[in-house]
Write a structure and sequence with these properties.
Helix content: 55-70%
Order of helices and strands: HHHHHHHHHHH
Distance between the termini: 33 Å
Structural class: mainly alpha
Length: about 180
């Protein structure tokens, strides 16, 4: 229930909580799919019965469809393609609305304990996602031929990989 309230209210910790939830869900999906694969003979394809036995997968799809109306992920922004041909007028990699900053620190000075706690949780969420960089990049790579606008300019896959700073240690990245 706490996770649902965090996501719905967009309070502090939402980003890291959401990233942690994504990592957890990916691990559970992988475990469920691996268990089904292990029950099959080598080279045997999945069938309708196998898909019906994927209860966790079905629940994730159902929840993703309902949450998708509440949480917007701007893949164009993530892959550094913005309206107007990526004119570089947005210099930040993360956006917080005024309302979100007011929830985190009503004083507006962004120095409250809650604000620093939120920042720490964002770093933890980023570091957690960074551990799965190859899987995330490979998942996005599968969409390269989709003709989506976010893949039409520049080097979106290279830029996505750069955002994880693979050349840096965790400590260095945490201090960015």
């Amino acid at each position: 229930m706490s996770l649902v309230m965090d996501i719905l209210l967009a309070g502090y910790g939402t980003t890291s909580t959401l990233l942690s939830a994504i990592v957890y869900v990916l691990q559970q999906l992988k475990a469920e799919h691996q268990a089904i694969r292990e029950s099959k003979d080598k080279g045997e394809l999945l069938n309708c019965k196998d898909y019906k036995n994927m209860r966790f997968t079905s629940n994730v799809i159902s929840e993703a469809l309902s949450v998708g109306r509440l949480v917007h992920v701007d893949f164009g922004f993530i892959l550094e393609t913005s309206p107007g041909g990526n004119m570089q007028f947005e210099s930040t990699h993360f956006k917080l609305s005024h309302e979100m900053t007011q929830l985190l620190d009503p004083s507006g000075v962004m120095k409250s304990e809650t604000w620093y706690h939120f920042g720490g949780l964002c770093v933890k969420g980023y570091l957690a996602a960074r551990r799965y960089m190859d899987g995330i990049v490979n998942t996005v790579l599968m969409m390269l031929d989709s003709r989506l606008p976010c893949f039409s300019r520049g080097d979106p896959i290279g830029n996505l990989r750069k955002r994880f700073h693979p050349e840096m240690s965790e400590r260095e990245v945490a201090n960015l």
